[in-house]
Amino acid sequence: MTSATIAGDVLAIVLAAGEGTRMKSAQPKVLHEIAGLPMLGHVLATLDEAGIGRIGVVVGPDRSDVESAVGTLAPAAELFVQRERRGTAHAVLQARAAIARGTGVLLVLFGDTPLVRAETVRKLVETAGEGVAVLGFEAADPTGYGRLLVDDGELVAIREHKDASGAERAVTLCNAGLMALAGNAALTILDRIGDDNSQKEFYLPDAVAVARGMGLPARVSVTDEAEVRGVNDRAQLAAAEAIMQRHLRQRAMVAGVTMLDPDSVHLSHDTRLGPDVLIEPHVFMATGVSVAAGATIRAFSHLEGCEIGAGCTVGPFARLRPGARLAEKAKVGNFVEIKNAAVDAGAKISHLSYIGDAHVGAEANIGAGTITCNYDGFRKFHTEIGAHAFIGSNSALVAPVTIGAGAFVGSGSVVTGDVPADALAVARGRQVVKPEWAIGFRARPENLAKANRAKAKRE
Ligand code: UD1
Ligand code: CA
Fold it and tell me: Any catalytic annotation for residue 351?
């Protein structure tokens, strides 16, 4: 069978009913994010990439948050509730109805093991044969993991850490948690698993000994520890995040992105970066960011939910918030914040500005300190700035307002009314000059003594 046909006949069950108490969190463990996507989302994305579409997710009772996350992440997945937490085999059996419908291979994954690659999943599925296949790894520190007991090159059983003897604890080949079972034998195997162990739980790893007892083969598919790291606490969450970040950066660089200091760049699972993008140190990209070819993201910029066109320059110290859309060769400089605004080709917003709920036309020049006043405390309003318009520094554009194409706004203006194309608008106090006024001011009796002292100092 080719891997495509195997993948087409797989039922995947993802276990996500654990309490995750070691996370010390109000949020369920599987919804904690890595690279901006819940851990559970990573597992579901891996299944999608592996071409596995029949999915069941086992969740804990009263977990409407996990249920609605599954609804968004994998709308076709079937939900099963495990009312009592009685072990991983017991959890799989909550999906009995789906398993009983029949499948070529039953694949079990954990919601707290988010870094597994599609390739590894495919290999595991192909290893199951008539029996079971377990994903194994050599653990640097095997404490806590189930040990794979191999005899004469054959996998005979998995022993949980808590139940293992001294000699068994010395084994470093460990169970990653993922398992593939021949579909026609899966329910029989699962039903034969007992709870005769230190935890009085139904252990999925016991499927190995049960299958062997039925005369079925049990095999190990080995992978790297980095890929199968389980997340049980926040330190392990951070470790998994670091691995994912390295992976995302590596992929970007292979695809033609230059990073001057890769370790200081944070990407999201869905970040899209074109070739010849240059990223300076200390850049954070939250979800929903795309950067087209040849753009430069300068140091200390924070981007989220934005599109950056080809050849743009952003930053240093820029903040692009959701809905910021820069067309090609636009320039956004230091201490500029942009939200829900389209900036057309070649427009420049170089310093110290807030542009929100706006459209900036092509080649417009927005002077330093320009602010779109988009909010009146109740509602948001739009600012329209035409192509080639020039907004003088330190202007406030009070929305809703339109600045016509090619118009000028004098610096320091507070613009409350529309400005026609090619007009000049100046909206500030006119300058008053009083010649020699300061001389008279200094000569006032109450100022004289101090003025003389200052004069003596100057001379
Ligand atoms: C499990 C394995 C162990 C393996 C390790 C790899 C068992 C008994 N042990 O141990 O061999 O080395 O993973 O990380 O399988 N869950 C439920 N319902 C339950 C119990 C667990 O849904 O009743 C889910 C959890 O949410 C989690 C997964 O199953 O996603 C694993 O459970 P966990 O308690 O974390 O198992 P480990 O002790 O890590
Ligand atoms: Ca675990």
Answer: yes
Q: Which two tokens stand for residue 426?
A: 């100046």
pLDDT one-digit tens code per residue, 132-184: 999 999 999 999 999 999 998 889 999 999 999 999 999 999 999 999 999 99
Q: Do the beta carbons of residue 36 and residue 286 sit within 8 Å?
A: yes
With a 6 Å cutoff on the Cβ, whether 148 touches ligand 1 is no
**CA pair distance 440, 16, nearest whole angstrom:** 82
Question: What is the predicted pLDDT for the residue at 459?
Answer: 87
Q: Is 206 in the pocket of ligand 1 (CB under 6 A)?
A: no
| DSSP run (H or E) holding 254 | helix 234-254
Q: Indicate the top mutation candidate among 110, 161, 168 to test ligand 1's pocket, ranked by most ligand atoms within 8 A of CB.
A: 110
Residues flanking ion ligand 2, Cβ below 5 Å? 230
Closest CA to 399 of 376, 421, 422: 376
Structure tokens at 213: 């007892």
Give, for ligand 1, the residue of 88, 158, 200, 201 to mutate: max count of ligand atoms closer than 8 Å to Cβ: 88
DSSP secondary structure of 6-30:
HHHTEEEEEEE----GGG--SS-GG
Q: Using the CB atoms, write b or e for 177-200: b if 16+ within 10 Å.
A: bbbbbbbebbbebbeebeeeeeee
Please state, in angstroms and rounded to a whole number, the distance separating the CA atoms of residues 236 and 440. 73
CA atoms within 13 A on the CB side of 127: 21
- What pLDDT sits at residue 18? 86
Hey, what are 420's tokens? 């026609």
Q: C-alpha distances in angstroms, 203 versus 115, 307, 445?
A: 23, 48, 95
pLDDT in tens, 418-431: 999 999 999 999 99
Q: Rounded CA gap, 166 and 443, in Å?
A: 97
56: which 2 tokens?
């069941």
CB of 397 closer than 8 Å to CB of 364 = no
Number of the ligand closest to the Cα of 21: 1
E-assigned strand segments in 249-304: 258-259, 265-266, 272-273, 278-279, 283-285, 290-291, 296-297, 302-303
Residues near 438 by beta carbon (within 8 Å), at least 6 away in sequence: none
Give the number of the atom of ligand 1 that is nearest the alpha carbon of residue 84: 23
Query: Is the CB of 28 within 6 Å of ligand 1?
Result: no
